[in-house]
TrEMBL record:
Cofactor (UniProt): pyridoxal 5'-phosphate
Pfam family name, one: GntR
Residues of the signal peptide: none
Protein name: PLP-dependent aminotransferase family protein
Superkingdom field: Bacteria
GO molecular function, one term: pyridoxal phosphate binding
Ranges for domain HTH gntR-type: 12-80
PROSITE patterns found in the cross-reference section: HTH_GNTR
Species assigned in the record: Lysinibacillus halotolerans
Length: 465
């Protein structure tokens, strides 16, 4: 009689335990080919389980060809080819639940105003696309992204950022983290990279193995004089709203930087990340570096993260025409990383003028939030220094306290408020006179900004005036 160890308290059904045990016994030749198996009643009595359990197990073995049934005779072990594995009891995997802390007030610089997204309109364009027979969008699209979207992006860049380019120069991808490695492959292996300090901290960690040359930043943006002292030939910069300080690269330094890149025989390039360029609160919008460049030395990058939504995962870069041939040679076999349906929804949304209308609406909303935040500090906490408030969706505040940034961050977290120390974005240590934090206002409701600031200041022991 067959003996199988069945665990009646197991989460795995008895029929499945029996089926696995018998299958493994057949595969490993513990039961010879042609052996007649016990009847369902006898095996059920022997194992002290129901005949239904035996019937289900035999039925599965029969379906998979491990046994055969002869009417009125019984079940027999079938001859099978040697199988590549024996099913074993899998060890239990501990699944850790990732719990993301949700704060009452989260000043994260990357959050947007989700209440103002045009869901109805976006749903309309998505529905139109899926209702129509768009079977071709199920196939792989153009490597650089859908032409229709690249065409709309080119129009938008010309009208809003002073960039003159054609769709052939534009490459669409699922984020700057995905596009930046492509740019790096286009450049010489011997290239040396310079990055703003403080700056976008994910760039060196992910792509440059911390070998980048840090260049200091002041109230006028990246200090080009310091860049000129290095042997770097590539610089990654956020000139429109430097991350995280919020500084705007001055006109004089823009000219100086373009002259640095144009020096003959140096193979220099500027990677311009036009971060937060859509939202400016003081003065007129400053044209992109790419629009000022006469020597094709600027690789322009941007996303729809702030202007639409972070989860859309649509970013793009604009290549100088001098790099197009190299791009096509290296990436001819690549596929676009953004779903074609998403690209066409966005393209139609832009073509009909809704993207421009949405931006204008969001500028008004973010300006109100920006003004509420800065006015609250100026009115009640004049000792707080605010910088980087000309553009974007965050500002920097410096507080007159002796505690470290990490200690103050912990205090705020305990009060259910999230703040972000500038030291988290340093490539090379800098000693600030005061603890300094990024305060993003995009994701906080307008009515909550003032009470959030009051709670944060009270937490840190700073009194209202």
């Amino acid at each position: 009689m067959l003996i199988f160890e069945l665990e009646k308290n197991s989460s795995k059904p008895l029929y499945e335990q029996l089926y696995i045990g018998m299958k493994n016994a057949i595969i490993t030749k513990q039961i010879d080919v042609g052996t007649k198996l016990p009847s369902k009643r006898k095996l059920a009595d022997f194992l002290n389980i129901s005949q239904t359990t035996i019937e289900i197990a035999y039925g599965q073995l029969l379906a998979e060809g491990y046994i055969t049934s002869k009417p009125r005779v019984g079940f027999f072990v079938e001859e099978i080819d040697t199988l590549p594995y024996v099913e074993k009891e899998q060890s239990k995997v501990t699944i850790e639940t990732r719990i993301t802390k949700k704060y009452q007030y989260d000043f994260h610089p990357g959050k947007i105003d989700t209440e103002s997204f045009p869901f109805t309109l976006w749903r309309k364009y998505a529905k139109e696309l899926f209702d129509n027979t768009s079977k071709e969008y199920l196939q792989v699209g153009e490597p650089q992204g859908e032409y229709e979207l690249r065409f709309e992006i080119a129009n938008y860049l010309y009208q809003s950022r002073g960039i003159i380019c054609n769709p052939e120069q534009i490459v669409i991808g699922s984020g700057t983290e995905q596009l930046l490695p492509m740019i790096l492959r286009l450049l010489e292996d011997s290239s040396k990279f310079a990055l703003e300090n403080p700056g976008y901290s994910a760039i060196p960690r992910i792509h440059l193995q911390n070998n980048a040359i840090p260049i200091p930043v002041d109230e006028d943006g990246l200090i080009v004089d310091e860049l000129e002292k290095t042997d770097a030939n590539i610089v990654y910069i956020t000139p429109s709203h430097q991350f995280p300080t919020g500084a705007v690269l001055s006109a004089a330094r823009r000219t100086q930087l373009l002259k640095w890149a144009a020096v003959k025989g140096t193979n220099r390039y500027i990677i311009e990340d036009d971060y937060d360029s859509e939202f400016r609160y003081i003065g007129k919008p400053i044209p992109a570096l790419q629009g000022m460049d006469k020597n094709e030395k600027v690789i322009y990058m941007s996303t729809f993260t702030k202007s639409l939504m972070p989860s859309l995962r649509v970013a793009y870069f604009v290549l100088p025409s001098t790099l197009l041939t190299a791009y096509k040679q290296i990436f001819s076999d690549y596929s676009a990383t953004v779903p074609r349906f998403d690209q066409h929804i966005l393209a139609n949304f832009m073509k009909d003028g809704h993207f421009a209308k949405h931006l204008n609406r969001m500028r008004k909303i973010y300006r109100k939030k920006h003004d509420k935040l800065t006015n609250t500090f100026e009115t009640f906490y004049p000792e707080i220094t605010i910088t980087g408030d000309q553009a974007g969706m965050h500002v920097l505040i410096s507080v007159p306290l002796e505690k470290t940034e990490q200690e103050l961050k912990q205090q705020a977290n305990e009060l259910n408020i999230a703040v972000y120390p500038v030291s988290d974005y340093l490539l090379k240590p800098i000693k600030y006179e005061r603890p300094t934090f990024l305060l993003g206002f995009g994701g906080i409701d307008l009515v909550d900004i003032e009470p959030a600031i009051h709670q944060l200041m009270a937490c840190w022991g700073i009194r209202k005036k």
